[in-house]
Design brief:
By secondary structure, the chain is α/β, with parallel strands linked by helices. α4 (about 95-105) packs across α22 (about 490-495). The chain binds pyridoxal-5'-phosphate (PLP). Pyridoxal-5'-phosphate (PLP) binds next to α7, α27 and α28. One of its GO terms (cellular component) is cytoplasm.
């Protein structure tokens, strides 16, 4: 394929971006060969591509460590407010290329490998994704780490080192199957185990009253072993830390068995404790109240809080105090951000530490806790909200349940004072939900225990205030904020789309990766014919590269002139992949009805994982594949319509697909997608969006102007009105013949070899109890898609709109998001300054410790 660059072209492209220093290249080669020999114990005769990857990764890591140590020393010396980001998910993807770019050594590495006769892209492809996340929430945490380091914040990510990340998806006969993601099989070159900082975490046991206060005794201990990974800022010499905990049995675990003489069984049973960090729960936007998941959440919170308190006490500020370190100033030196309610046990855990270990009064402890913690809500879907059963909590965390009850008791008193006799309000707001089974509403607990609560896009934050958390907003309006999500422009443009990056740098200079607002300078070039041609040439090359990759993987011939219409995200009813399928079938029927007609050719790609237990989502995947089989094999259709289900969508695949997209599908029911971040990645890479007025789409439309985006469908108010009036899918089905035909075909077995029961679950939902109103938006969606096709034929207009998209995406840098969190929630000031390079001569740190605290 002509879109694939030759080796010489690739090298030229990189050399524009980073001119390699001869000395750097020489030392890089030396280091690489040293690692191949001493670390991997291989020579060039027997080394595999994977060995070369590891040798390169270790070489790159060597370039990190001085900066890493010096950054931590710098934090110790300056002792700024520490920011702790707590998340059960970090969807990091690969680290190698990102690290080389952020360190500014990509040119030197590329040249060194070229001189040694190795293909760097081959090596890069050997790296396993760190897939410790499900989708948007986990990827957000990863983008935030990159931005916090780039802004010079003294920030730490804390989470779990899952032995198995998000499963690998395989499609067999059109159906999803899951394979375990054994990502650590060949080792992780980036992490550093720190067994010397192992921390005990308690479970079960009972609570007793002592003269010294409450005590939690007779517990079972699991050890939390920290693994640190470096998080380099963008060319600023900062390197922050992501600390992930791994569960480890204490030596005396199951000692009872040992005493019974069954030594072998006792050793085998050590696995039980270590299961806590075994596997990531594969649910996106869904709460499954499993005991092991509760243990994961507490394990992470307990280990992290002990670490936070320890670091506070040994900090310059903490250790200035004599003998007993006062906890009073914790909120001035520490900010804790909760990524959804998953880490919300941090609130009762901090209370437990302050009450039972530091012996503070309830009032003092509560004041410190609330001023330290802040909570980010990520969804309004009821099935996603965490509600842990009280009986499970009582068994596993008895002391925490007591504390939660007392928090709630005092909270109810406060409501009673302000709204005397308003029992219904107390019931609505309580952290404890009565009913068949008593449950703790973790969102309510998080609001009560935090000084700031934020949604992740303007619309979502408004819905929190007016609907889901209305009562709380009435009580504490000052707690509620918005922080519109963002993405890191380093990974999602500079790294994944080097040709577009070079083109942009040619026009506006090289500062944009850390000052994304500067992309606005491209607006004046939107109608520039030459620039339009250049942008569309890059897009075409990206499309060709993707096409040749897909042709290899799927054996389908792809028309590179067709519109690449892409819908990638987790498979979920609210994201409405089924609405896209209805459009596909509509296009198919139109071609069949008018075989000689002129149709704008489309290659429609849908990708995403379904939670293994989510039956409807798995059926949706099967339907997409079955529709694809009919469409792709119909000779009448030819190259005018192709449907591809992209297997195993993940960060690494997103990096390949997004730069090649013409059209981005963001079609959730208005009011259901909290923000979306996939939408932003496409916009930044010059795809046009077809979308509803939902999540951050609203702000994207505002930034680029409604002329540059294809908006359709009900607004939130219209969805609400329809819900109030009563939605009847049959009204739409019976009055729209194109819609009726599509649904009847699915129902009658047209896509399932004549088996009418195959997709009856889906058609029953659509016709009888669809919570996401697909038919109500169908007609407008189809009309809007027709407009998309029309504009796609006007290449000049399309290019102009694409440039407007790129030029308007500055707001969606996660640097902007993080700067807002820092100033408006954390009380920490982004520095944007550089640390001196480790090679620069200057005064060495006087820190007594090595700073890797
Ligand atoms: C960005 C991203 C997401 C989030 O996509 P949405 O469209 O916002 O749901 C999910 N998965 C991966 C791999 C991503 O990179």
């Amino acid at each position: 394929m002509s879109g694939v660059k030759t080796e010489a072209e690739k090298r030229k492209q990189i050399s524009v971006r980073a001119i390699a220093d001869v000395e750097d290249v020489t030392s890089m080669k030396k280091s690489f060969n040293r690692h191949l020999h001493y670390t991997l114990v291989k020579d060039r005769n027997i080394a595999t591509t994977r060995d070369y990857f590891f040798a390169l990764a270790h070489t790159v890591k060597d370039n990190l460590v001085s900066r890493w140590i010096r950054t931590q020393q710098h934090y110790y010396e300056k002792d700024p407010k520490r920011v702790y980001y707590l998340s059960l998910e970090y969807y990091m993807g690969r680290a190698l290329t990102n690290t080389m770019i952020n360190l500014g050594i990509q040119g030197a590495c590329d040249e060194a490998l070229y001189q040694m006769g190795l293909d760097i892209e081959n090596l890069e492809s050997m790296e396993e994704d760190a897939g410790l996340g499900n989708g948007g929430l986990g990827r957000l945490a990863a983008c935030f780490l990159d931005s916090m380091a780039t802004l010079g914040l003294a920030a730490y990510g804390y989470g779990i080192r899952y032995e198995y990340g998000i499963f690998a998806q395989r499609i067999l006969n059109g159906e999803q199957t899951e394979e375990p993601d054994d990502w650590l099989r060949f080792g992780n070159p980036w992490e550093k185990a720190r067994p010397e900082y192992t921390i005990p975490v308690n479970f079960y046991g009972r609570v007793v009253d002592t003269p010294d206060g409450k005590k939690w005794i007779d517990t079972q201990v699991v050890l939390a072993l920290p693994y640190d990974s470096p998080i380099p800022g963008y060319q600023n010499n900062y390197v922050n830390t992501l600390r992930l905990w791994s569960a480890k049995s204490p030596v005396d675990f199951n000692l009872k068995f040992f005493n019974d003489g069954d030594y072998i069984q006792a050793v085998i049973d050590r696995n039980i404790a270590e299961n806590i960090s075994r596997v990531l729960y594969p649910n996106d936007n869904f709460f499954e109240g499993k005991e092991l998941r509760l243990k994961q959440e507490y394990f992470m919170c307990a280990a992290t809080l002990q670490d936070i308190v320890r670091r506070y006490k040994v900090s310059k500020f903490g250790s200035r105090e004599a003998v007993r370190v006062s906890m009073d100033n914790l909120p001035d030196k520490v900010a804790i951000q909760l990524n959804d309610t998953h880490p919300s046990l941090a609130i009762p855990e901090l209370m437990r530490i302050l009450l039972d270990q530091e012996h503070l009064s309830w009032e003092k402890a509560w004041d410190i806790t609330v001023r330290t913690c802040a909570y980010t809500n990520h969804t309004v879907l009821p099935e996603a909200l965490e509600r842990w059963s009280c009986s499970m909590l009582e068994n596993i965390l008895p002391r925490h349940l007591e504390i939660i009850y007392h928090i709630n008791f005092l909270f109810m008193e406060e409501i009673q004072k302000r709204w005397p006799g308003d029992m219904d309000r107390m019931r609505r707001m309580s952290c404890i939900e009565e009913g068949h089974e008593k449950k703790v509403n973790m969102a309510h607990l998080s609001i009560v225990g935090s000084h700031a609560v934020n949604g992740v896009a303007w619309l979502h934050s408004e819905i929190l205030k007016s609907d889901l958390f209305k009562d709380f907003y009435e009580m504490w309006p000052e707690k509620f904020q918005n922080k519109t999500n963002g993405i890191t422009p380093r990974r999602w443009l500079l790294m994944c789309n080097p040709s577009l990056s070079d083109l942009i740098s040619e026009k506006i200079g090289e500062e944009w990766p850390s000052h994304l607002d500067q992309l606005a300078q491209l607006k004046k070039l939107a109608t520039d014919k030459k620039f339009q041609t250049e942008v569309m040439k890059v897009k075409q090359e990206n499309k060709m590269r993707l096409a040749s990759m897909l042709e290899k993987d799927y054996g389908i011939e792809i028309n590179p002139a067709s519109m690449f219409d892409i819908h990638v995200k987790r498979i979920h009813e609210y994201k409405r992949q089924l609405l896209n399928v209805l459009h596909i079938i509509t296009l198919y029927n139109r071609i069949k009805k008018n075989p000689k007609g002129n149709f704008v050719p489309r290659t429609i790609m849908i990708g995403g994982k379904a939670a293994p237990g989510y039956h409807t989502a798995k059926k949706i995947i099967k339907l997409i594949n079955m529709v694809g089989r009919v469409v792709n094999n119909d000779p009448v259709v030819g190259d005018r319509l192709k449907v591809i289900f992209l297997e195993n969508y993940r960060v690494t695949l997103a990096e390949k697909i997004i730069p090649a997209a013409d059209l981005s599908e963001q079609i959730s029911t208005a009011g259901t997608e909290a923000s979306g971040t996939g939408n932003m990645k496409f916009m930044l890479n010059g795809a046009l969006t077809i979308g509803t007025m939902d999540g951050a789409n609203v702000e994207m439309a505002e930034e680029m102007g409604e002329d540059n985006i294809f908006i359709f469908g009900m607004r939130v108010e219209e969805v609400e009105a329809l819900k109030a009036k009563g939605y009847n899918a049959l009204d739409y089905y019976n009055s729209n013949p194109e819609l009726k035909l599509c649904v009847d075909q699915i129902k009658d077995g047209f896509f399932s070899n004549g088996n009418p029961s195959e997709f009856s679950d889906l058609t029953d939902i659509l016709l009888k109890w669809d919570r996401f109103y697909l038919f109500a938006d169908y007609e407008d969606y189809i009309k809007c898609q027709d407009r998309v096709s029309e504009v796609f034929m006007n290449k000049k207009k399309w290019a102009e709109m694409a440039i407007h998209n790129i030029a308007s995406s500055g707001k969606f840098s996660s640097d902007r998001t993080i700067a807002e969190y820092a100033r408006e929630i954390w009380g920490a000031e982004p520095t944007w300054e550089k640390l001196p390079s480790p090679h620069a001569k200057g005064p060495q740190s006087t820190a007594q410790n090595n700073g890797m605290l």
